Amino acid sequence: MAMAEGISMTDDATNHRADSFETETDTEIQDDSPTNARSFKSWLSKIDPTKIGLLGFLAIPGWFIESAELLQIFALFFLLFLWPYIHPAIDSLLHGDSEARSDSTDGVDSGWLEWIIFYVIYVPTTFLNPLLMVQDAFQFAGSLIGYIRYKGAVPEADYKLKANYRLPVEGTWTVVNGGLTKENSHSWFPLTQRYAYDYVITDDKGQTHPDNASTAVEEYYCYNEPVLAPADGVVVDILDSDFESQHAGISHPLKRDIRGNYVTIQHASNEYSSLVHLVPGSIEVNIGDHVKQGQQIARCGHSGNSSEPHLHFQLQDSPTFETAAALPVQFNNIQINEPSHNKNKVERRSSRLPAEENTENKSQKERQELTEITAGQQITTHNHTETTKQANTDPHESISLPFRRVTTLLQRTGFGITVGALLTGISSLILTDLTITLLLSIGVIAGFTLWIALRLSEFVPRPGGLGLPLGIGLVALAWSAELLTGNLLLLVILTGFVLHVTVGEFDRKRLQSNF
């Protein structure tokens, strides 16, 4: 996942867009160059410099501890987070295109106006968004929590799930990202997205929208399509009010979460699904609601870190996205198709599946068997007239809503403390103490104002929504009272992370008792 543009959160979904995916795969198949050169090109095209950019976080101690100033040089690695905005040109070179690609800005048409919007407004606001910076850092650091939880033996492809899962969509969709092996994984690291999938709807040409269509989200086949519960369960987390860009190629610069709008459902003990990038205001369930497999819960959108409308879906072992470990999933009642525009691609990508899985004359009994899917496949969900029997997934009792609100509030407060301390530390390099206090106060006021506005609106309220401004406010008070110094800010950043993780682990263990 590209740090700025993926759920790979780097949502995300579409480091592999359906329309470009076909071209790149065909190039690989038809390349007549020597095997070693072709393998090198394939390896080079998979390099994600944004992960190397994580070395930039080593510079943080150098900003707060005088004796560690030498570490500040690692801040240069942060420049690699700009990779999502320059990789199309590199991609053209790797694939031998002599002409500039029409999607050189990932879906934005060429022209001065688009160039200004994309590189002058969108890139800086996305790259410098402190909420996304902290969430990405939490996500990568949270992978360590997952390894500790499993003592290093994190779930692998043969992991046995307690519930049976259907696709969270109806009809025929294309898998543009994801799989159960390292080679076709959505993103092998961070751990939370290891077995995630991205889905779109494509036409006979493998395109996600009609020829000559604009980049408006309504032009994409999957936009506003129903999103369904993959299994019976209880809703434990929601965001319904994040901003959504109205054009593909650009995610909203003021988004508050890399997932955008999402729903998290608990299906069994330590089994949660996360459905991501939903249309704002489309969520039809609330915290504590019991849902049935196949029940519509929202609509597919373009919110969060999204390069075009799609659905990001993943199973995880915790309600906390940043510290969860991904769980591999196979689906029942699906059929693997062979898209007419590229049979070779599907045959290669589905080589791990038995041959009979691709036939259309399967019996209903065979369709109930669990099927593995992977990027490049076109899949069809068969009619679920009868809900698949769930294994040990009937909740004994509803979620304690007051307790859930308290734990989520504490988690978001920890997140806010880290955001406030990071902003203070960076700002202290160029701003006066009074200006920093004013900046933090504006953030607090904006947070509380947004919370009040959302409570009065028709949007489903996010649990713990007050935690972010509360955490930033605590840092602002401590800074204005001169209780914080540069050397202590690093400790405060770590304190916010520890609070977020500790409450999340406590909440995960508490929710086990629901099943």
UniProtKB/TrEMBL annotation:
Record's protein name: Membrane peptidase family M23
Biased composition (Basic and acidic residues): 340-350, 359-370
CDD domains per the UniProt record, alphabetical: M23_peptidase
Annotated organism of origin: Methanonatronarchaeum thermophilum
Record's compositionally biased regions (Acidic residues): 21-31
Pfam families in the cross-refs: Peptidase_M23
Biased composition (Polar residues): 374-393
Keywords: Membrane, Transmembrane, Transmembrane helix
M23ase beta-sheet core domain: residues covered: 223-316
Gene3D superfamilies on file: Glucose Permease (Domain IIA)
GO molecular function (one): metalloendopeptidase activity
Range of residues in the leader sequence: none
UniProt cross-references to SUPFAM superfamilies, sorted A to Z: Duplicated hybrid motif
Keyword Membrane: yes
Highest taxon listed in the record's lineage: Archaea
